[in-house]
Amino acid sequence: MTTATRPEQLFRLPDLGEGLTEAEIVEWKVAVGDTVTVDQVVVEVETAKAAVEVPVPFAGTVLRLHAEAGSALPVGEPLITVGAEALAGADGSAHGPRPEDAGDAPDPVAPGDAAAERYREEEQAGSGNVLIGYGTGHGPTTSRRRRRRAATFPSTAPASVAAAPDTLSASASASASASAGAGAGAGAGPTAAAAAAATGTHAPRAISPLVRRMARDHGVDIAGVSPSGPAGVVLRRDVEQAIALAGRTTSQSPAHQAVAPAPASRETTTTTGPERIPLRGVRRAVADKLSRSRTEIPDATTWVDVDATGLLQAKKALESAGTGTRVGLLALFARICVAGLRRFPELNSTVDTERREILRHDEVRLGFAAQTERGLVVPVVRDAHLMTTVQLAAELARLTELARGGNLPPHALTGGTFTLNNYGVFGVDGSTPIINHPEAALLGVGRLVDKPWVVDGQLTVRKVTQLSFSFDHRVCDGGVAGGFLRFVADCVERPATLLADV
């Protein structure tokens, strides 16, 4: 009895929402020849907003990966091709995909594949089910399974990768010769397995993009690094040790010690030019936003030094109150900013340049700058005006943890109306902050330092910080900006001032 097989199914990069038009391939979770299930995560991509894990809506065997790690792929372009296993007939036999069927094919969905159809409907509706930390809720597992039977479709590995070491070639040849003596059918499996090993189709281990980039920048082969993390994960310290070991090996080599470098001749000196680093992902998003801010917004900056000793005392009092949540200085500054925006609502605005209108917002969506391994991001605390100081502290801590792990969903990085930037953690006093477009204002907080300060006519040492405030001159004049900054300074010096706004 003949067997029935489903056609190849092409899965394209889905719309990841938030107006994103492309994504960079960070790491493939599967390789050609792997068996995948519906909703299994097959690739991790990086957008301008977040790292995203993309599941496949089909089940079957991976036939083709249409993009390499490190490349940018526009939304809607082919991502992966999956061919379903053949359905066994009455005689129990089954046939895999044929080589002649491995061309680019449309992406039909089998009529009986309800799970795949449901996924496609969600993806077309803008479902957020592809974000890290979120699933569709009905995927059975994300583990990978290898086909035991050798694949017969052509390899997609480049010719340079197909060249194996002599030992591997000899082993493969010996295996092929032994198999030929036993018959063509018996030799197909080992030969295909050796070819798969030679072409390097094994899936990479789960390694963070930062670690891969560090290894690539220093010329370290990530496959040769001994992992120390759980489940064989290569960590940052593993790559750093490999870099240090490579440096010691180079410096101690006999050739390096015995041969002195010859003086370079002017005629033979060649220069490779500056290193070109493409703007991608978060770095490009930050560059575009800051460039647009400088181009569109007529900003001005004002600043003031304040005695923060009273604020530190208030922080200590909150910690001893047993609230169960650690209230840091960032949360206290957030509480002060929310109160200040209530008094000066002009600063809680955005400008619609096309309609030439100022949009004054009722709710405060407070953004705060967070430096992560992927770059600078600005998570947004929504409905900050409805939160207590303790609630603000808890939400700031939650978003910070997500940001550092690269797990912030895109919607958590948009829609802010005001930004708070505590650059004092970098050990600097002040700056001229660039407004986070399309917002109208940003408050920067410098480091806390001991300075001589006059209190009640007496010179004493106090904890002093500098506040820098940038504002859009289109939404207000200097009087409003100065009033806001003075209110913030008064609350820092005398936190009891906030009681009038509680």
Task: Sum this structure up briefly.
The chain is α+β, with helices and mostly antiparallel strands.
Detailed description of the structure:
The chain has 502 residues and is an alpha+beta fold. The chain folds into three domains: 8-157 and 191-198, RNA polymerase II/Efflux pump adaptor protein, barrel-sandwich hybrid domain (OB fold (Dihydrolipoamide Acetyltransferase, E2P)); 209-248, Irregular (Dihydrolipoamide Transferase); 282-501, Chloramphenicol acetyltransferase-like domain (Chloramphenicol Acetyltransferase). Helix content is 30%, strand content 21%. The protein contains twelve helices and 20 strands. The chain has helices spanning 114-124, 159-162, 166-182, 184-198, 209-217, 236-252, 254-258, 281-296, 309-320, 329-343, 389-404, 478-493; strands at 8-12, 22-28, 34-36, 40-46, 51-56, 60-65, 72-74, 78-83, 145-146, 299-307, 349-352, 357-360, 366-368, 370-372, 375-377, 380-381, 418-421, 441-445, 449-455, 458-472. The strands form five sheets. Strands 10, 13, 16, 17, 18, 19 and 20 form a seven-stranded mixed β-sheet that branches. It has a five-stranded antiparallel β-sheet with strand order 1-8-6-3-9, with no helix packed on it. The protein has a four-stranded antiparallel β-sheet with strand order 5-4-2-7, with no helix packed on it. The longest helix is centred in the middle third of the chain and has 17 residues, at 166-182. The chain is globular and about 80 Å long. The N and C termini lie far apart (79 Å). Mean pLDDT is 76; it is low at 86-112 and 122-204. Pfam families: 2-oxoacid_dh, Biotin_lipoyl, E3_binding. Residues 8-83 form the Lipoyl-binding domain. Belongs to the 2-oxoacid dehydrogenase family. One of its GO terms (molecular function) is lipoic acid binding. Residues 105-114, 151-164 have a biased composition (Low complexity).
